[in-house]
Design goal:
two-stranded antiparallel sheet, five-stranded parallel beta sheet, Rossmann fold, globular
Length: 134
């Protein structure tokens, strides 16, 4: 791949306990120009290591993971790597969950049932903005 192209590719890391959801996201996001799915995990511990190893720009994560919640992961990324965009895509959409994610440092919050496409469009918009930078 051309170095100039790879320098502006948005690397997305997927974190969800459900392999089916990760597959669907990988297929949809991987089809977007300027987006590379850089890896995936089902739990927060593996995710943090993978996100950093992949040098991810964007993380799409569910609130519930195989080993608990993603709140600690969101907090850790916000504290140590604030430039990584954190997009929560979850079925746990009560106001308290949304507030907890925002307090932890999530950049976006989407309902997995009704806003799946909106989350994908948000990733596409971020990738387009990165591609448009001089």
């Amino acid at each position: 791949m051309d170095t100039a192209v790879s320098a502006i590719t948005s690397k997305v890391y997927l974190v969800d306990a459900a392999v089916e959801v990760r597959r669907r996201l990988a297929r949809l996001l991987g089809a977007i120009a300027g987006v590379e799915v850089a890896g995936e995990a089902e739990d927060g511990d593996a995710a943090l290591e993978g996100i950093l190893a992949a040098d991810a720009d964007i993380v799409v994560l569910d609130l519930r993971l195989a080993n608990g919640t993603s709140l600690e992961l969101i907090q850790a990324l916000s504290r140590t790597h604030p430039a990584i965009i954190k997009i929560v895509l979850t079925n746990h959409t009560a106001r308290a969950f949304r507030a907890a994610c925002e307090a932890a440092g999530a950049d976006f919050f989407f309902d997995k049932t009704s806003e799946f496409d909106a989350a994908c469009h948000t990733v596409a918009g971020i990738a387009r903005a990165r591609l448009a930078r001089p």
